[in-house]
Design a protein that fits this description.
mainly beta; single chain; 1 helix; 92 residues; four-stranded antiparallel sheet; OB fold (Dihydrolipoamide Acetyltransferase, E2P); Transporter
């Protein structure tokens, strides 16, 4: 089973990926588990859609090489890891 969580004794801004006794830390706080509902490859870039809740989909643009390396397929579980330096808000 794959888990991302703050882990005991770690900074809340660091999530830990644990699998088979190995730990990988990432600095992103927003890690959202979901199911891949679409993988559309283009010439060099793919759009991967992950449904994180019923009717709520996050889309990521990544390289085709990353899709192949991560073995991303429709129906597989994956994580959307959101790391942003700015969040902008606009109104009409």
């Amino acid at each position: 089973m794959r888990r991302l969580d703050p882990g005991p004794g770690t900074d809340q801004k660091v999530a830990e990926y644990r699998k088979n006794g190995h730990v990988m830390k990432i600095s992103a706080r927003n890690v959202i588990k979901g199911k891949i509902v679409s993988v559309e490859k283009g010439a060099t870039t793919a759009h991967v859609k992950i449904e994180v809740a019923p009717g709520q989909v996050i889309t990521s643009s990544i390289t085709n090489e990353a899709v192949d390396s991560l073995k991303l397929t429709v129906g597989s579980e994956a994580y959307a890891v959101v790391k942003s330096s700015d969040v902008m808000i606009a109104v009409d």
